[in-house]
Amino acid sequence: MFKFIRKQIHDRLVERTIRRTRLVTKDGHCNIKFGTTEYHNHFAFLMDLWTTFVEIHWCFVIFLFAAAFTGSWFIFGLLWFSLAKNNGDFDVLQNSSESQQMKCLDNVNSLTTAFLYSLETQTTIGYGSRTLTGHCPSTVALLIIQSLMGTIINCFMCGLILAKISLPKRRAKTVTYSEIAVICLWKGNLCLQIRVANLRKSLLIGSHIYGKLLRTTITPEGETIILDQVNIDFLVDAGKDNLFFICPLALYHVIDKLSPFSEMAADTLQQQEFELVVFLDGTAESTSSSCQVRTSYLPREIKWGYNFLPVVSRTKGGKYCVNLSNFSKTEPAVTTPHCACCFNNEHNKELILHRHEREGIDNLGFDVIDLQTVVM
Fold this sequence. Notes:
Order of helices and strands: HHHHHEHEHHEEEEEEEEEEEEEHH
Number of strands: 15
Number of helices: 10
């Protein structure tokens, strides 16, 4: 029992270490920190307050919402209180009708009533018990200032909440990648495949797919480059731009002689140190806002010699059905070369492709469709 608990603790520590080493998490967040202990200058964020407020967490937005209104009510309440006190409204006797007419505010005789009058003024509630008398010009000026400030705060907070609700990041949450990637033969080439699915029926217009391979390299001059970026081109059957992204798509990268994966093999892949970051840019059809969906894959999340299980089938009623339970599931490929160098050899390539065509690939559970009878 003790060994089992110790193993679980060890596995959790290893998992946390792996998560910390990612530059991009599986859900697309960047794991990076700017600045050092000697540099804590955050004035750059204050110069762009709107972006800072839009990007902060909801709990801070709610706190800012409450603090902005409550603080403005209290500050203007103090101003109303000081104005009434300086005018001598608190010293006026109730039975003195002459002095009663010279008051600046009616029924404002304490800090609490001044705060309530400030709240009623800024929110335009107007209960009617506390009012301006019109004898003091300063009260008219303060009323105008508070009304303008209340309008500005309302516009800012409503715009902030609307901006956070309509962030493109929320649309990106409905686009998901497969948990793993596979390397197998695809249309006569050795390819790295990744799946991506759009969980909404609304499309992403002008979608563009690309990838970056992040790794540490050493230049011929002996300089070590951390997080060196290498472009990875991804394609689908319809190309790489303007995708018809209505059902799950399989992205594939051809591992040729120019690919950084050409130096890897089935038994050396897990010993490599790199991170594959995949990007999908597009414009939401319903809101016309641009969004980017990101994810990353470590060597342990790439399976060599596997295929994805099919996810699209057709029901008896003629509708197409997407089974997302098989979205990240794989099965061993029938024929997969041991390495890209072996496959790129012309003689071996012909033998492997001939065997692949002869044996075929089993797509178990997929309903075969007669394309001549399909009515879209």
